[in-house]
Amino acid sequence: MNLPEWLKPNVSKLVITKPTWGHENKTYYRIKECGQTIDSTYLNWIFNNIVLRGECVAVQVGGGWNYYGATEFIDEMLKNQLMR
User: Fold this and answer.
1) Domain that holds residue 23
2) How many domains is the chain built from?
C-alpha cells in the first residue's frame, strides 16, 4: 500500500514501518509517535485504510501501544510487551 504524502514522518510526526511477526514472517504496520501524540486525523485514516482492510497494526497512542488484527498477532505483541 502506498501511503499518502501527508503521512510521511516530516509531516505527520509518525514513523511507519512494516516489520514481520510470527514463524511465517507475516507483516504488520508499526506506527510510532515521534515527539507528539498522534493526531486523530491520522488515526482515523489508519483505521479506515489499514485496520478495516484486515491488516495487523501496532499503533502508538499517547505513548501506549494498541494492537489490531488477527488474535495470534495481538497475543504475540502483548506477550512481547510483557517480556520487555
Assistant:
1) 5-83
2) 1
Amino acid (one-letter) located at 51? V
pLDDT > 70? residue 1 = no
pTM for the predicted model, two decimal places: 0.91
Query: pLDDT tens, 8-36?
Result: 999 999 999 999 998 899 999 999 999 99
Long-range contacts of 71-74 (CB under 8 A, 24+ apart): 72/22, 73/21, 73/22, 73/26, 73/28
